[in-house]
Here is the input.
Amino acid sequence: MRDTQLLLDGLVLTGVGIGFVFVFLTLLVASMTLMSLLLRRFASDPLPLVTPKPASPLCDTELVAVISTAVHRYRRHKRR
Here is the structure.
Protein backbone atom coordinates (compact mmCIF):
# COMPACT_ATOMS: atom_id res chain seq x y z
CA MET A 1 0.00 0.00 0.00
CA ARG A 2 2.83 2.41 0.79
CA ASP A 3 4.49 1.97 -2.62
CA THR A 4 1.22 2.60 -4.41
CA GLN A 5 0.64 5.81 -2.46
CA LEU A 6 4.18 7.04 -3.24
CA LEU A 7 3.68 6.29 -6.92
CA LEU A 8 0.37 8.18 -6.97
CA ASP A 9 1.93 11.14 -5.14
CA GLY A 10 4.73 11.19 -7.70
CA LEU A 11 2.29 11.15 -10.58
CA VAL A 12 0.25 13.97 -9.03
CA LEU A 13 3.38 16.04 -8.48
CA THR A 14 4.47 15.39 -12.07
CA GLY A 15 1.05 16.45 -13.36
CA VAL A 16 1.10 19.63 -11.29
CA GLY A 17 4.59 20.46 -12.54
CA ILE A 18 3.70 19.88 -16.18
CA GLY A 19 0.52 21.93 -15.74
CA PHE A 20 2.43 24.80 -14.14
CA VAL A 21 5.01 24.86 -16.94
CA PHE A 22 2.27 24.72 -19.58
CA VAL A 23 0.39 27.64 -18.02
CA PHE A 24 3.60 29.66 -17.63
CA LEU A 25 4.65 29.11 -21.24
CA THR A 26 1.15 29.93 -22.49
CA LEU A 27 1.18 33.21 -20.55
CA LEU A 28 4.67 33.96 -21.84
CA VAL A 29 3.64 33.45 -25.47
CA ALA A 30 0.49 35.52 -24.98
CA SER A 31 2.37 38.40 -23.37
CA MET A 32 5.04 38.38 -26.08
CA THR A 33 2.38 38.39 -28.79
CA LEU A 34 0.61 41.30 -27.10
CA MET A 35 3.87 43.26 -26.78
CA SER A 36 4.66 42.60 -30.43
CA LEU A 37 1.26 43.93 -31.50
CA LEU A 38 1.67 47.00 -29.32
CA LEU A 39 5.14 47.72 -30.66
CA ARG A 40 3.97 47.41 -34.25
CA ARG A 41 1.11 49.79 -33.59
CA PHE A 42 3.02 52.50 -31.72
CA ALA A 43 6.51 52.19 -33.23
CA SER A 44 7.79 54.94 -35.47
CA ASP A 45 9.04 54.37 -38.99
CA PRO A 46 12.44 52.67 -39.12
CA LEU A 47 15.48 54.80 -39.81
CA PRO A 48 16.99 54.59 -43.29
CA LEU A 49 19.94 52.26 -43.62
CA VAL A 50 23.35 53.85 -43.91
CA THR A 51 25.78 52.18 -46.28
CA PRO A 52 29.33 52.07 -44.93
CA LYS A 53 32.11 53.69 -46.91
CA PRO A 54 34.64 51.28 -48.37
CA ALA A 55 37.90 51.17 -46.43
CA SER A 56 40.91 52.77 -48.02
CA PRO A 57 43.88 50.55 -48.90
CA LEU A 58 46.02 52.49 -46.40
CA CYS A 59 43.75 51.45 -43.53
CA ASP A 60 44.00 47.80 -44.58
CA THR A 61 47.80 47.85 -44.61
CA GLU A 62 47.90 49.60 -41.23
CA LEU A 63 45.47 47.09 -39.82
CA VAL A 64 47.52 44.16 -41.10
CA ALA A 65 50.67 45.69 -39.58
CA VAL A 66 49.01 46.24 -36.21
CA ILE A 67 47.56 42.72 -36.10
CA SER A 68 50.84 41.09 -37.11
CA THR A 69 52.72 43.12 -34.45
CA ALA A 70 50.20 42.06 -31.82
CA VAL A 71 50.49 38.39 -32.81
CA HIS A 72 54.29 38.60 -32.77
CA ARG A 73 54.31 40.18 -29.29
CA TYR A 74 51.80 37.61 -27.99
CA ARG A 75 53.84 34.69 -29.29
CA ARG A 76 57.07 36.16 -27.92
CA HIS A 77 55.47 36.71 -24.51
CA LYS A 78 53.92 33.23 -24.46
CA ARG A 79 57.31 31.51 -24.93
CA ARG A 80 58.66 32.88 -21.66
